[in-house]
Amino acid sequence: MREKEIENKFRIAVKSAGGMALKFVSPGFDGMPDRLVLMPGGRIGFVELKAPGKKPRPLQISRHGMLCRLGFKVYVLDDVKQIEKIIDEIGGDAL
Hints:
Layout: H1 3-16, E1 20-23, E2 35-39, E3 43-49, H2 58-69, E4 73-77, H3 83-91
Parallel strand pairs: 3-4
Antiparallel strand pairs: 1-2, 2-3
């Protein structure tokens, strides 16, 4: 399965759970995750999408660490089997 297919399934699943999975672009600040996930109850998470088996680049790993240190949840999604768990963790008790 290609990264774009995983991304589309993720976006649809987040919407079905009552949230939004917004494409995240940060001009001048490369390496940020692909999607900003906003869930009911003010829950926020970041998701980096990858083709199956692919890993984040070093700059992406650095940005993920920065976001985690700020207290945000950051996930790398490379398999549709991970979607439900990621949504549950971001959404918490708001689902």
